């Protein structure tokens, strides 16, 4: 499963250059952001000093990692749907999340202030352009790596008005949301049990995160609705319950596996999903989810 950061995520590289003292990156005029001397800056490990480990920060990032895992899993399924591939087997999902963890480790090593995650925007672009070639993703990643060393290139994206990004996101996020709804076709939509679970998951997935966002002070205190004496505990719960996909997943998973789950096996669509969850469940899995560039020949079998 291949994924890269979306165009909007390139803005997160701006602090890397601001620390260099290039005040021109704060310009929002497109003409000024592309003028002047072009700085070239290569990142290297631990360029901002040795890492600092604090238990509160580690536990807080555990909640963020869980949220990233849930959101990325949904993105993987949407990408497979748009690309015309089989649903990702369990070992592919685990492998993808593991490589995402490796990417986050590299982010911290090179001094990034944020981690990475699967790009919902790029999945929407996949559905919009109908280009599902893995080679296209690889070439795009090469271009992003090349242009990331040019500060003015990042300033150009920062100068694009936010309404332009918002208009693009309305289309891209809408496509991903709609393809998620299409998975309901594999369940019995006439079952009151399924209707109840779907409705409650959607409602709580929207309302609970909205409550947490509205009652969290991100500027002054950083405190949210969960405000106990344990800062790490607060960080984990406030992060988890501020993510709509994570809340919807928790509610839907608990209800689907406890509410008359055994007798409603066919209504849940388990019979349709089960063959795709195994490595050899479908003959096309190897074609869709094998490593590119003959990496399969060098990777230990347990990681394939």
Automatic annotation (TrEMBL):
The lineage of its organism: Eukaryota, Viridiplantae, Streptophyta, Embryophyta, Tracheophyta. This is Nucleobase-ascorbate transporter 3. It is a multi-pass membrane protein. Keywords: Membrane, Transmembrane, Transmembrane helix. It holds the Pfam family Xan_ur_permease. Belongs to the nucleobase:cation symporter-2 (NCS2) (TC 2.A.40) family. It comes from Tanacetum coccineum. InterPro entries: NCS2 (IPR006043). The chain crosses the membrane at residues 136-158, 164-183, 195-212, 232-255. It is found in: Membrane. It comes from the Eukaryota. Its main location: membrane.
């Amino acid at each position: 499963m291949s994924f890269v950061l979306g165009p909007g995520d390139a803005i997160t590289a701006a602090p890397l250059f601001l620390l260099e003292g290039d005040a021109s990156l704060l310009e929002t005029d497109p003409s000024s952001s592309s003028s002047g001397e072009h700085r070239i800056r290569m990142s290297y490990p631990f360029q901002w000093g040795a890492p600092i480990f604090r238990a509160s920060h580690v536990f807080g990032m555990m909640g963020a990692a869980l949220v990233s895992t849930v959101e990325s899993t949904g993105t993987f399924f949407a990408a497979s749907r748009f690309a015309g591939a089989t649903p990702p087997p369990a070992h592919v999902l685990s492998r993808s999340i593991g490589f995402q963890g490796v990417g986050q480790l590299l982010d911290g090593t090179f001094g990034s202030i944020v981690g990475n995650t699967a790009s919902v925007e790029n999945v929407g672009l996949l559905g919009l352009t109908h280009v599902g070639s893995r080679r296209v993703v690889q070439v795009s990643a090469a271009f992003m790596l090349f242009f990331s060393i040019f500060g003015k290139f990042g300033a150009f994206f920062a100068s694009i008005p936010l309404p332009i990004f918002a208009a693009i996101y309305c289309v891209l996020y809408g496509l991903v949301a709609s393809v998620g709804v299409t998975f309901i076709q594999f369940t019995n939509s006439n079952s009151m049990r399924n209707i109840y679970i779907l409705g409650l998951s959607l409602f709580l997935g929207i309302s609970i995160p909205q409550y947490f966002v509205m009652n969290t002070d991100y500027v002054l205190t950083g405190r949210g609705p969960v405000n106990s004496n344990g800062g790490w505990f607060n960080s984990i719960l406030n992060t988890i319950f501020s993510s709509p996909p994570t809340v919807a997943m928790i509610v839907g998973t608990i209800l689907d596996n406890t509410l008359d789950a055994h007798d409603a096996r066919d209504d849940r669509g388990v019979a349709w999903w089960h063959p795709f969850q195994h490595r050899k469940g479908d003959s096309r899995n190897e074609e869709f989810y094998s490593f590119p560039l003959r990496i399969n020949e060098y990777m230990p079998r347990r990681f394939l």
